[in-house]
Amino acid sequence: MTRRNWSRRLMAAMAALMVLWPFANSDLTASADPVSDDLVFGIYDLPNSSFEESEPDGSASQWTLLQPLTAGVTASVSDERSYNGSRSLQLTDGSTTETVAVGSVPIQVKPLETYTATGMLFIESGRSSFYMRFFDAGGNGVGDIVDHKQTGLGAWQQVKVSGQAPANAAYVRIFASISPLWMAKSYYDDFSITGRFAQEQAIPGVLAIEADPVLQSEETLTVSLGVRYAAQLQTVNAIVGYDSSRFEVVDVNFTAPFDTGASSLDTSAPGQLVVHASADTGNAVNGDGGVAEIRFKAVRQGRGELTLSESSTLGKSDAGQTGRIYTLPSDQTIRIEVIGDPADVNRDDRIDQTDLMMTAKRAGAALTDQTRHLDVNGDGVIDRADMETIAYKWMDEDEAAAGATWQAEEDVVPVAASATAIADLRFGEPESLGSPVQNVATLDAAYGYENGIAVMYTTVSGDPAVFNVVDLHNNALLKSFPLNGSVNAWSHAVDQSGNVYIAATSKLFRYSPSTGQLTDLGVAIASESLIYDIEIDEGGRVYGGTSPSGKVFRYDPATSQFTDYGSMVPGNQIARSIAYYNGKVYAGIGPNGAIIQLNPATGAKEELALPVLEGVAEYPFVYGLDARGDYLFAYLYGNGIDSLIIYDLINGQWLNDVYTGVKGLHMSAVYDGKTYFVWDGMLASFDLTTGTVQTTGISYSVGLRHTGWVSFPGDPPADGSTLVSIQYNGTVAKLNPQSGRSGQLPVVVQGEPIEIHSLEKGPDGALYMGAFMSSTGVRYDPATASSFSFPMGQAESMGVLGNRVYFGVYPGAYVHEWDTTKPLQTEASQPDQNPRLTFHIGNEQDRPYVMESYGTKLFVGTIPDYGKLGGALVVHDTLSLQTDVYRHVVNNQSIVGLAYRDGKIYGSSSIHGGQGSTPTETSAKMFVWDVEGGGKISEFEPDIPGALKAPIMISGLTFGPDGLLWAAADGIIFALDPDTLEVAKSKVIYPGVTEYGKWRPIHMRWGSDGLLYTDLHGQLTIVDTATMEHRSLPVITPLFELGEDGNIYYAEATELKKIQIARANAPVHPGSLSLEGDSELVTGRQASMALLTDQANSLYALKATIHYDPAVFHWDGVVAGSLFRDGELFYRETVPGRIELVLTLTGARSIRSDGEAAILHLTALNGDPSASVRLDGRSLLLADDAHITGGFFPVGQDRVWAAGVYEPEDANRDGLLNDADISDVAQHAGMAVDAATARYDLNGDGRIDVKDIALAAYRIRGTT
User: Fold this and answer.
1) Neighbour order of strands in the sheet with 1029-1036
2) Is 890 helix (H, G, I), strand (E, B) or coil?
3) 758-1063 sits in which CATH class?
4) CATH of domain 206-339
């Protein structure tokens, strides 16, 4: 008996099969009671782990929402897909501002123990998350471990997170989630968590079967039944089904401690056995081990299955008292291949051309695990002997068919008449071209001292973001730490002990200068995707403001707890700025500006009335908020406003002065009783004693971020008198108000890959890319695989007009121009700057998301500013430089689709406005615009067949070669007649999709092959608009382009990827065959005829059947022709009159020219003027890739070689022997012997003379 290492082998089986149980109901709730030390390592008994049970409202039983569902977000049990069982948990999120998270029951854990959660995830579109969150006894989150998935579209994949429970953890929950940053549709199934639990909380174990997948007929198959993660396992009743026509049960051997008298095997039911395994009382199993080994005898070749039934049960040691048993959620099946004939090398139960080609291709190759099966005769080499065995067995299998009545057919047409252009496409595997945008984007910094050296703490945006410690005295990078689970950091703050807190995306981190360690403190508030600003009070507690719910939180390092104070102003999505003063927290809100005073002790909120400002009807964002001295400084930004207002915290009133033209984000740290800010391009000071403002004379046009005062050696006039502030590109500004000097420290932090945000093919064939929250663009040349970067803000979209590329940049809706015929020149002080700012849209517009061009005009569709509704259609003339902005072309909607035709712009909209706005409309529109007249001709809602509801975004507008206007919405593409504006064509490609999209349009691009390529619903899709057939690629992306080389280029987060496209109209046709030889044969003499190729193309092998009349011919043999001289030939006469022959090359070769495939030799036995030899039309030609593509082509129509067979004396070839033949020989006497007269040289001596006449007379008359 062979013992199996279940710890290793069953782990591998489970990784593939994930056989888990639908666990019994549990009443466990969060408890502060300590977990007992009497623990087992196992799998927690998780209720409804496979989501088979649901509530009346469709939600998953015993699973709860982290927060209520909002519009466009769903969470329910679905029977559309399942990994095990029949149902799964479906999450959908159609918004980039909403989130959905569904969590398990609380699971009691032991601090500092390691726990691993797994699940199965099916991503239909977008990006989804799976995570564990640990909680303390009070219900406060104390740590998250997250797995984000964006790849693996269209297939079930495992998600897994593992980590140590924090020291103050009391329980953990498992969550399925979609982040508010992403839109997605996903399915979750089969959740589990392993770790150390109380015995009563764990399932009895995981059961699986294992066996070698291949064996020879008549061999013994050993099937191992084992258990992993056993917890007090006492009994197993395993029901195994098997194919009784292929397998016979031999016996079973039980593994200790199940090798007791109580264990037995029941084989009474045909095709089924039951293993009853029982351990002795008090000897229950914990951990991993075997249960039994079952032996079968393989009695017949072919593929068979063994199935561990879902009705199998496991029982714990207390099952007698509790009555609880555990069953499988579904059957577990393993497939066993019983090999009957080694010549069937591809194991498809037949021996044919594929087996021969597979072997011939690897002839002479070394034996490996991948090639050993090709050594058919087992002599240690892959050679002619193996091919010979296969060839003759192939002939055997075809003999019956070859002997059947053959009806000659027309020549076979190799390409099916129904083949379409889409079916002809062949796509390569995605190839990563790297992360082209390597950018230093630093949003903020904090300052301190380490070992007497002034240091800066800053974070470079990336995936993940990277926290850096920089030596300012020597401008050197000291340390770097990845901030896993984050992409940026908007704020940093230093507490009284020098600890640095980093607000990184939705998480809080802490860096300790004393230990040099970075600690992940977890997600502050599960519903929030971004922390914008943090401040620290006198007790070291951290306060932060968030998005998208405008909440404020507190983190208390003494308890490691987060406190959620809720949304500050209902309906406002962002708490953009935070200040702390004298026990109160002040939150700056947007997009509708407000300041909220929060009492953290009581949670009470009070709005601070804002002053009336001249010309300001509606306050924009309170973008920055700082308490300095006894003043609160509020920086207002948006809607064309960039002002600073100041509140006297002692007297409770606003100062009268309003400073416009201010650059945020923060007031400086205090130095010598003053705080500094940027006003009208100058550094200015505010005296905290006198309340007066004074400029310093230092020009500075960039806003201050968090600042510090640093003593640089040699900087006069006093120590600590230089103000430092990080800039967006990583440089550090040095401003010394005392000396009036300014300067910069060069970038020393390393750039990080930045997510690609826009992608467009330029007129020069290069690909231009913009990146998210970046100051860099990239030009990539596919022809040379080279790239370079250039200064560019966050380009929301790009467009092409002539030789120029245009970039629509956020924020502020600025449009930049790149002349591709001119060199890069980025110095603003020099002439011919390229790229350059060409115009500003203004008019409360913020994001240019779509561009179109015609003639000298550039058309732009925009999204409005924060909190605003009403995008714009922008028409910019590149000659006159006139820019016309038409807002509310579609009332309260944004413009996301544009296409030009015959003096008209055809446009489409999204109901969404600027960030933080609430749509007032419910359905997107389309419109037609008169370019010359500058007015709207019509506005309408297209009637889209198959749409479940009116779409909220219509985009992707493009005119096709058919003259129709093509567009996309949700999961549908459709085409309008531009004259009638009626839908002429449509197809629902992704059914069930609704409320898709916000700002970024769907892209539609026409290939040179006439097909339409699109990222419909975020998935690469190709459509034949003539037939409306489509093909979906397993690629999720919001951005793609078609290169000049005909390949697809697309963005996947920070990476640019390429998919090569090849067109294969059909499998390569290797040509045809024919027979050729003399038309006249003479009895008693051997004749030769050639088997010839006709239009040979990538020919590798052939199998020919030759028919002849055995009364007329004797078969003498065949030799390989010139084309196959270095190949292998196999032939035989299967029955008299029928010859089978196989010719094959070996190795990696093919035939691409015509010639002799084989030479056939026959001897004529008896005269027959109408004799023939026939090449069977079922003879096959095999292309060199036929074993992969199935390119096996029959000759089609019989090929016939007709020849008259005559006696030698039948000189006139009339089939008779008489005096006419004697006369004919006599008439040719004395003539030279050539091809035309050879028949008269009866004795073959090279002369036609009296001897030949006498021989004819003798044969005919019997006398000379």
Assistant:
1) 1004-1006, 1012-1014, 1019-1024, 1029-1036
2) coil
3) mainly beta
4) 2.60.40.680
Return d(Cα 75, Cα 60) in angstroms, integer.
8
DSSP state of 374: G
pLDDT tens column, 1130-1172: 999 888 999 999 999 998 788 988 999 999 999 988 888 888 8
Work out the burial of residue 449: count CB atoms within 10 Å of its CB; fewer than 13 is exposed, 13-18 middle, 19 or more buried. Answer: middle
Rounded Cα distance, 829 and 832, in Å: 10
Q: What is the DSSP string of 629-649?
A: TTEEEEEEEETTEEEEEEEET
Task: Burial-class residue 740 by CB neighbours within 10 Å (0-12, 13-18, 19+).
Answer: exposed
Quickly tell me which residue has 């929950």 as its tokens.
173
| 353-361 vs 384-403: helix crossing angle, rounded to 10 | 160
Residue-level pLDDT at 413 = 32
Radius of gyration of the chain (CA): 41
pLDDT of residue 866: 84
Q: Span 1219-1261: which CATH code?
A: 1.10.1330
Cα-Cα-Cα-Cα torsion 210, 214, 215, 217, nearest 10 degrees, comes to 120
Q: 121: which residues sit within 8 A by CB, 6+ positions away?
A: 128, 130, 149, 152, 156, 157, 158, 159, 186, 187, 188
Q: Which residues of the chain have pLDDT under 70?
A: 1-38, 96, 151-152, 181, 329-330, 369-370, 399-421, 572, 714-720, 1063-1068, 1188-1191, 1262-1264
Domain 400-405+1066-1206 CATH (choose: 3.30.43.10, 3.40.50.1360, 2.40.37.10, 2.60.40.680) = 2.60.40.680
Alpha carbon separation from 508 to 498, 563, 899 (Å, rounded): 16, 13, 45
Please answer whether residues 237 and 276 qualify as being in contact, where contact means their C-beta atoms are separated by less than 8 angstroms. Answer: yes
Q: Nearest-CA neighbor of 404 among 1178, 1196, 1192?
A: 1178
Look at residue 414 in the predicted model and tell me its pLDDT: 32
Do residues 63 and 174 touch, judged by C-beta distance below 8 A? no
H helix count then E strand count, the chain: 7, 96
In 10 A of CB 1122, how many CB atoms?
A: 13
369 token code pair: 């695990």
Token representation of residue 992: 């069930």
HSE-up (13 A, CA, CB side) for residue 304: 27
pLDDT of 717:
52
- CATH topology assigned to domain 22-201: Jelly Rolls (2.60.120)
DSSP letter for 823, please. Answer: -
The predicted pLDDT at position 402 comes to 44
Tell me if 392 sits within 8 A of 1132, measured CB to CB. Answer: yes
Residue 418 makes CB contacts below 8 A (sequence gap 6+) with none
DSSP class of residue 1151 equals B
Question: Residues for the chain: how many in total?
Answer: 1264
Judge whether 206-339 and 400-405+1066-1206 match in fold: yes
Strands 621-628 and 425-427, how do they pair? unpaired
Nearest-10 Cα torsion for 721, 725, 730, 733: -50
Asked if 1001 and 912 count as a contact pair (C-beta separation under 8 A), the reply is no
Neighbours of 1135 (CB within 10 A): 11
Is 149:129 a contact under the CB 8 Å cutoff? yes
**Pair of tokens at residue 566:** 């809720």
Q: Select from 118, 191, 122, 95 the least CA-distant residue to 1036.
A: 122
Close Cβ partners of 27 (under 8 Å, ≥ 6 residues apart): none
What's the CA gap between 1106 and 1117, in Å, rounded? 12
Q: pTM higher than 0.85 for the full model?
A: no
Domain boundaries, the chain: 22-201, 206-339, 400-405+1066-1206, 758-1063, 1219-1261
Give the residue from 302, 156, 289 showing the smallest Cα distance to 229: 289
Which residues are within 8 A (CB) of 1224 and not within 5 positions of it... i.e. 6 or more apart? 1211, 1212, 1240
